[in-house]
Amino acid sequence: MSRIRERGWVRSMTTGDPLGVRVVCFPHSGGSGIAFGAWSAAVPPGVSLMAVQYPGRGDRFGEPPVDDVAAMAGCVAAELLRLPPGDHILFGHSLGALVAYETALLLRDAGEEPRALCVSAALPPGRMNNRSIHLAPDDEFWTTLCALGGIEPAIAENAELRDLLLPVIRSDLRAHATYRPRPGTRPLSCPVRCYHGEGDPLVEQAQLAGWAGVTSGDFTETVRPGGHFHVTAGVAELVADVLSQGRK
């Protein structure tokens, strides 16, 4: 019986100083590391851009997806800790915000707390408005996903691609829905920056202040145009803002 070859979780998107700043990006439900491909041109020399590749997509398409946020974070943190000590900025979008947060905790516990944690399009840990979305029938589920704007029209209209993507997206949303922060977790001490896409139908801006509770350090938030997938608009401005967080 053949065995699927498992690949690593973290991909280098640029060649930067291995001992310098590393921006590590965590994609949304159903997303892959290539979602941050456009960021490469906006990263200045010397900075490393890295992206997390969850199982079940991209070059890990043959691997079964993982539906547990803590397990995802454990795999990512283990790979980052095998690198030479560096200056990490973690950026997580939607589901990725929770995986990035859990990764930050693991790095902190290993003595390598990130320079900053940046969270985007996500309610604070343990909160989710629709925990049953991943249980909806296929047609209803797919229509809801397409309405958010994260699926290209050519893919949305392709039934074969839909059938391939649905199990992966359901798994990711199940991970999001079942995630609960660990009781008694010590707050981080690094700055936390929260990005909200104006008009995001999944995230109530009034609840974002709850992210302040995950750190004893500075908490800031900003609103950007573009709705839930604002990360694809004004990329250069966004990357510059991310890099400014926790600057020494």
From TrEMBL:
InterPro entries: AB_hydrolase_fold, TEII, Thioesterase. Residues 22-239 form the Thioesterase domain. Belongs to the thioesterase family. This is Thioesterase II family protein.
